[in-house]
Specification:
mainly alpha, 78% helix, globular
């Protein structure tokens, strides 16, 4: 993993051209660092948002394609390293047939589950246009939120005096918990 000072240096030196491949590899962290670079005036906000969204969609499409055309060929030890078993992937694939949008949202909200969810979308043969549109709708606010966190952090850094990291950590945890609450609401029984 690339450390934050190195990311800032790479992004400042190479601009949006370096941002895209970095975001493809590690979207959320790079998005926050890019927001910080925007607050410093090193990168343009519009270009950052477009680049981050396109990189995120490209990464999602790659994982979808792997799931669709090669999920059975992925060595089991690679899946285990990503925290996925073949059984888990098979259950997700079955779930995609009836809850595709809900599972995509879960994958976007929980970055760790995203790998398995995107593979399962491809393995379940979710129509690619529907997959891409749903991911676009989910990616735009996610990328914007991470950029905003970096931007606010960049603006507030000189004012922080030691309280900034704990406050941002608590805010991020609260935002995450609020965002996943709808996923745990009990389903109403249909008559």
């Amino acid at each position: 993993m690339i450390e934050t000072p190195e990311l800032i240096s790479l992004i400042r030196t190479w601009g949006l051209g370096m941002l895209a491949p970095l975001a493809l590899l590690e979207g959320p962290m790079v998005s926050v660092v890019a927001g910080y670079a925007v607050s410093l005036g090193a990168l343009p906000l519009r270009g950052v948002l477009i680049t981050l969204v396109l990189a995120d969609l490209a990464g999602d499409a790659i994982l979808y394609a792997i799931g669709r055309f090669g999920a059975g060929r992925i060595p089991p030890h690679w899946l285990r390293r990503a925290g996925v078993t073949r059984r888990h992937l098979a259950r997700l694939t079955l779930g995609f047939r009836s809850h595709d949008l809900r599972l995509l949202m879960l994958g976007k909200l929980t970055h760790a589950a995203g790998f398995a969810v995107l593979l399962a979308a491809g393995a379940a043969r979710m129509p690619f246009a529907r997959f891409l549109l749903a991911n676009l709708v989910l990616t735009i606010p996610k990328s914007a939120a991470f950029v905003m966190i970096g931007w606010v952090f960049g603006l507030a850094l000189p004012l922080g005096d030691g309280w900034l990291w704990p406050a941002l950590t608590l805010a991020a945890i609260a935002l995450f918990l609020l965002s996943i609450l709808p996923l745990f609401r009990p389903r109403r029984a249909t008559p």
